[in-house]
Design a protein that fits this description.
With 376 residues, the chain is of the alpha+beta class. The protein is built from 6 helices and 15 strands. Strands 1-10-11-2-3-4-7-8-9-12-13 form an 11-stranded mixed beta sheet. The chain has a two-stranded antiparallel sheet with strand order 5-6. Strands 14-15 form a two-stranded antiparallel sheet. InterPro entries: FomD-like_sf. This is DUF402 domain-containing protein.
Length: 376
């Protein structure tokens, strides 16, 4: 069984594929671009500026630090809501009936994300560097929350306690279309369904060095099911994405390069933390603070080579929020006022008993796991 893209992605003329020359040089600034299957209708896309860390026949590795200015999308008529908070029977209506989309400015929260995109594969692997809260256990290879759900950018953020709490790393598989590339950008489509590894007792990386899929949990199962049930896209596309996800887990060892534990150490270094930070050790200097970034991308008050290889366009140092793929994570009340909320997603599960059978089953996601809600 081979991977299959559910649809052909609209890309600029002459776009090639990852793994094919000419390759980007380390340090090159490129834009990670998400386009939906209906891009030709409204020409709305998600754009994330990133720095190339590595590029070659195996694939590309790119870094984006927290505070990076990005572009996200919202739904017309639901301006006060993040798309994830819009009712499913509205969000996943057939395209002719669904609300239009428009672009909005956004900021990436957390300490940063390292994206590893293997060649000819419909997914990217994310290593998320996140602040660990006081109640979190330090974990390098576990403890997933809804890793790329949005967090408020226009609401209050609290950096207090950053020095006292260790950072944590999370591994995340984002199911996408096979990546295309130009000299300036990566093009793919986010296919809703994702894979997390939230169980500390079943981490992605086993002690013996093998890759372990037993603790894998699919995220946003209800959303991808709704996409087929409500007619947002053909039901067979949902089945294709599910099959791709199961195939990724069955073939983890074939993609060992993308899941190499060395990316954890690199992500910590790029975020400005020592390799021991995820184990609760203090950074040099004992402050736990990431140095400020000057206009030229250099750290203020130091002549050492900076570890932060993010884009020059960084608008905020906002360590308190989750890593996000959107501008804000908040709900709006009926008067349009925004109230920041914490989104737990799947939560940081500590036991297999806390995860339903429907969530844990990765080889065959039950079609009945989603119940259509009353129309709202």
């Amino acid at each position: 069984m081979e991977f299959t893209d559910p649809f052909e992605l609209t890309v600029p003329p002459g776009a090639g594929r990852l793994g094919e020359a000419p390759f980007w040089s380390p340090g090159t600034a490129v834009t990670w671009t998400y386009r939906r299957f209906d891009f030709d209708i409204d020409h709305v896309e998600v754009r994330r500026p990133m720095r190339v860390i590595e590029d070659g026949p195996d694939g590309a590795v790119l870094w984006m630090p927290g505070g990076t200015a990005v572009t996200d999308t919202r739904l017309v008529g639901w301006e006060g809501f993040n798309a994830h908070d819009v009712p499913l029977d509205v969000r996943f209506r057939p395209r002719a009936e669904a609300p239009g989309r428009y672009e909005v400015p956004a900021v990436w929260q957390g300490h940063g994300v390292l994206k590893i995109a293997p060649t000819h594969a419909p997914f990217s692997v994310w290593v998320l560097v996140k602040p660990a809260e006081a109640t979190d256990r330090p974990a390098v290879r576990g403890g997933s929350t809804d890793a790329h759900r949005p967090t408020g950018t226009d609401g209050p953020t609290d950096g207090a306690g950053r020095g006292e709490s260790p950072v944590k790393l999370e591994w995340y598989i984002n199911l996408e279309t096979v990546h295309r590339r130009t000299a300036e950008a990566v093009y793919t489509s986010d296919l809703i369904l994702d894979i997390t590894f939230p169980l500390p007792e079943e981490p992605l990386h086993a002690i013996d060095g093998s890759l372990n899929s037993r603790g894998a949990v699919f995220k946003d199962v209800h959303e991808i099911t709704a996409a087929g049930e409500y007619g947002y896209w053909p039901r067979e596309w949902t089945d294709i994405v599910r099959t791709n996800g199961a195939l990724v887990l069955d073939r983890l060892e074939e993609f060992r390069w993308a899941f190499d534990a060395k990316w954890e150490r690199l992500a910590l270094e790029l975020a400005g933390f020592g390799a021991g930070a995820a184990r609760g050790e203090s950074r040099p200097g004992g402050t736990g603070e990431r140095p400020g970034v000057g206009p030229a991308g250099t750290e203020e008050g130091t002549t050492e080579e900076p570890l932060l290889l993010g884009p020059a366009l960084i608008v905020a140092d906002n360590p308190a929020g989750e890593d996000v793929r959107a501008e804000a994570d908040h709900r709006a009340d009926r008067n349009g006022a925004a109230a920041p909320v914490r989104v737990d997603g799947n939560g940081a599960a500590t036991s297999a008993n806390e995860i339903s059978a429907g969530q844990r089953e990765h080889r065959r996601i039950p079609a009945g796991c989603y119940t259509r809600p009353d129309s709202r």
